[in-house]
Amino acid sequence: MALVRVISSDGAAFLVSQRLAKRSGKLKTEIETFRKSSDNSEAQPEIRIVTIRAEILRLVLQWLQQHQNDPVLPANQNEQDGRGDAEMGQSQWDRDFLAPMDLGIVMELILAANHLEVKGLLDITCKLVESKITGRTVDEIRTAFKLKSDFKGNEEEQTRLENRWCVEN
Amino acid sequence: MEDIPDSLILHIFDYLDYKDVTSVSQTCRQLARVANDEILWRNLFHRHFVISPNKFIDPLCTPSWRTEFIRLIDEVPIIETEVVTKHTDQVLHVAFSHDGKRFATTAKDGYVYVWRSGYPVKLEYSQNMKTFSWKYTQFSQFNESDSLLLVSGVLFGLHSTSGEIAIFSLKDNFELQCRTMSKPYDIFGSWYSEMFFLSGNLHWLGQMVSKSVIWLNKASQEAESEHASVMNELYRFYNPKASSVRSLMVANCVEVENPSNGECSRAATNEEEKVDQAKSSQSLDIRDIRTGNPLSNLPLERELMEREPPASQRSLQGGFQSWKPFENVSDINYSDGYCSERSPGQSSRASLQSPSDLDSADNSTEETCGASSSQLSNELAGCVGGTPAKRPKSQKKHRDQRDISPSKCSSVEDESEDEFLDPRPKWLIFTCGSKTYTPHQLGFKKINPMSFNGKIDPGPTLKERIEEYKRRKQLERTGEQDASINWSDHARVAHRFDEVDKIIDLHGHVIGMALSPDHRYLYVNSRPWPEGYRISSELDPPPIAQEIDLHVIDLTTLTQVGMMRRAHRAYTPNDECFFIFLDASDLYIASGAEDKHGYIWDRHYGISLAKIPHKDVVNSVAFNPIEPEMLITVSDDMTIKVWRSRNLCRKLEINTEKLKFGTTLYSVPKGNA
C-alpha cells in the first residue's frame, strides 16, 4: 500500500495511505506534484502542512479515515447543494466526533478543512458553528465565540438602530 | 473568529437565517462588515422569499439586497392599526386622494364618508345619498387636484340597473356640484380631466344588442343659460350578445423610451403588428404562468432576458391553464339568428347620418356629425337631466387624419379654437364582451386631446320633434320603416359606432381593475372560465373559477405581460359575482378577496407577501399614494381597516404589542421562527 507522510506545523509526522490522503483535495494535488517531480515512482511523498498543528491534523485524518468510503464531494458545489449534503452527511459518528470539542478547536478545524479541501468536514463544522449562533442574542454570541465589541464611538448604537427592523418580528 | 478569513465566515453565514445574521452583525466590526455582504443577502433574500435565484433586483429600489430584504419585512403594511366601524352595512369601495391626505369610502348603507388619513384616521365629511333616492354608494374617485370627489351609486328600485354620479366639492364643505345619470350603474364613471368626468348610458337597439354612449360631463353646472351645455357625447360603442360597457377608467398615455414603439397609438396600427404582439405576448403569458410573477417596471429588454424555457418542458397544474391571449372583436361573427328587432328612433337617425366614405372593414372613424348626434342626444338621453350638446370637436384632428369629408365636420370647424381640456392623450379603458353578458374583455380607446363644446345646438323645435315622432310612429305601425337595419349584424351597422382600438379577451369574468401609479400597467382581477368552454347562449355565461387570476397589461403596447394565479379567492357564482377591487403602488399590489382577506404582493418579484384578515369578504383596498406603507381595506363586515408597516408604526410611535398582524405568505424553508 502506497503511503504518504504528512507533517504538521509543529513537526509531528503522520503516515497515511495515499488512497486516504487523496480524499483531501489539497493532499491529492501535493501527491501528484510530488510524482511528477520525482523520478522514482516508489519514493514515499512527504508533505508539510505549515498552517495546521498536530492536534488538528490528527482530527482531520481521523475524520477522513471514518469517511474514506463516502463519495467524494466536489469542492466547487454551490452553497445550496452543499447545505443539503451537510444535512445528509452528518452521522451519529460525526456528532460524537464534534461533541467534545470547544469552539476554538472547531474554528481551527474549519480552517484546516478549508485549507486541505475536505468539503464534508468543512460542512459539518460550519453547521456546528451555525448552531451556536442560531437563535442567540448578540451578547450570547459574543460569549460563545469570545468576541469583544470593538465598535468605536456611536457605531454600536448605529448598528443597533440599523437592525431594529429585525427585532420585533 | 478573528483568524478566520471573511470568505469562510461567509460560508458559515450562508447557513444562517436573516435574524441570526443581523444578531451576528452587531457583535464586532469584522462580523458587521461580513454580515453586510451583498451576495450573502442576495442568497438570504432568494431563500427567505422563495424566488428564483435568477431574479434581478427591483430596478426601482436601492440596489441593495439587504435593503430589499428589509423593505419586504419592515415596510409592508401588515399591522392593523385602526378598525373603523362607522358604516352600518357592507363597505364596497375605498379610494385615496392623490395627495394621500384623504380617502373616501362608499357602502351599502348609502353613505359616502371622506376621512383624513392621519393617525388615527378621522371622519371629515359625510353624505347620506339615500336622500337622493340612491340605494347605495359603490365607488368614488378624487380628481387630480383633489378638489372634487366623484361618487357613483345605484339608484333605488327593485331591479335597478341605473346608477347616478354625484360630484362633491372638497374645498367647499362637501357641497354637491352636480348629478348625472349613468347606466348600467357598474359603468362607475371616471374623471377625464380636472373639471370633466365621464359617465355612460345604455340604449337597447334590438334583441341582445345595445349601444353604450360615453358622455363627457362638466363637473359643475352653471345655471345662467339653458344654452350652455354641461355634457358632450364622446363615444358610442356597439354591445353585442347582451354585453355592455362597464367599469370606465382613464389612464394617461405613457411615452416609452424605445423609439420603435414609442407612440401610444401603436395599438391602432396595422393587423400584422397586432399579430406580432399577440404572438410575443403569448410566449410571455406562458412564461408567466410558470413563474407566476407579474412583470413590473422593467424595460422590455430585460423581460426578454428573463425568459424561461419553452412551454413543452413544463407540466402545468390546475384546471384552466390553456391561455388564449387575444381575440379581436372584428373576428367575431354574429349569427343571423338574432332577429332584427328595431329600436325606436332609428329611422330618423339613419336619415340624418351620412354614409361612410370608408369601407366598413377598417372603418374606425366616428361618422356621426354634430347635428345628428345632438338630436339623438335629445331623444335618447334627454332624461339625464343635464342639457346635452353637440359632440365635442375632440375628434377633429382625428377625423382629418382619416380623410373624412370636411363637410361633415363643418359644424365642428366653425367653433373657435378652445383650449384643450387636457393636453395629454389618454386611454379610455373599460370592460366589455362579445360572447356573453358578463364582462370578459378589456376595451381600449385612445382619447386625443379635445375641447368641450359649451354651446348647445338647439336642434329641432318642439313642433318639429313632435312631427318627427308622429312620423316615426306611423312608420312603425305600417311596418315600412328601415327593414334594412339589422342591429344584430355588426358589420352593417359598424359605421354608426366608434370602434374600440383594442380588445383583450381574458376568457374570464373581470371583477376589478387598477392602474399602476405611473399609468403604464393595468392590473386586472379576473375569474377564469373553464378552458375551451363553448358558450351556447349569451344568456348562459360559463361557470367561473373560485380563484382570482391577476393579469398585467402593459398600456404602452396593450399586450398582456404578466399573470398571476395566486391565493386569493372568490366564491359567488356568475350572476351574483361582484367587484373585488385591487390597487397598485409603485412597489406592491393589493387586492380584496372573498375568503375574508386582503392580499399584498410585491410587484417586481411577484411573490405574495401577506394576507390581512377581515371577518367577511374584502371588497376593496387602497394604498396611500404618498405613503404606500399605509393600506386601507373595506369589507362586508362593515369595517374599514387601516394597515401600516412596522417601519411606519415606529415613526408614528404606535405601540404594536397588542395589535393584530397579517400572515406572511412566503414560506420560510428553515423553520426558524
Describe the structure in your own words.
The complex is a heterodimer of chains A (169) and B (673). With 169 residues, chain A is mainly α. Chain A has one domain (3-147): Potassium Channel Kv1.1, Chain A (2-Layer Sandwich), CATH 3.30.710.10. In chain A, 54% of the residues lie in helices and 8% in strands. Chain A has a three-stranded mixed beta sheet with strand order 2-1-3. In chain A, strand 1 and strand 2 form a beta hairpin. Chain A is elongated. The model of chain A is unreliable at 77-86 (pLDDT under 50). By secondary structure, chain B is α+β, with helices and mostly antiparallel strands. In chain B, a hairpin with a 5-residue loop joins strand 25 and strand 26. In chain B, helix 4 packs parallel to helix 5. Chain B is elongated. Chains A and B meet through helix 4, helix 6, helix 7, helix 8 and helix 9 of A and helix 1, helix 2, helix 3, helix 5 and helix 14 of B.
Low-confidence runs of chain B: 258-417, 668-673
Largest sheet features of chain A: 3 strands, mixed
The CATH topology of one domain in chain B comes to Monooxygenase
Shape of chain A: elongated
Order of helices and strands of chain A: EEHHEHHHHHHH
Number of strands of chain A: 3
- Give average pLDDT of chain A, whole number: 85
Radius of gyration of chain B: 27 Å
Report the major sheet of chain B: 5 strands, antiparallel
Morphology of chain B: elongated
Total number of helices of chain A: 9
Number of H- or I-type helical stretches of chain B: 14
Strands of the largest sheet of chain A, in order across it? 2-1-3
Question: How does the helix and strand content of chain A classify structurally?
Answer: mainly alpha
Structural class of chain B: alpha+beta
Overall residue-averaged pLDDT value of chain B: 75
Share of residues in strands of chain B: 25-35%
Q: What is the name of the CATH superfamily of chain A?
A: Potassium Channel Kv1.1, Chain A
Strand order of the largest sheet of chain B: 27-28-29-1-30
Straight-line distance between termini of chain B: 26 Å
Percent in helix of chain A: 40-55%
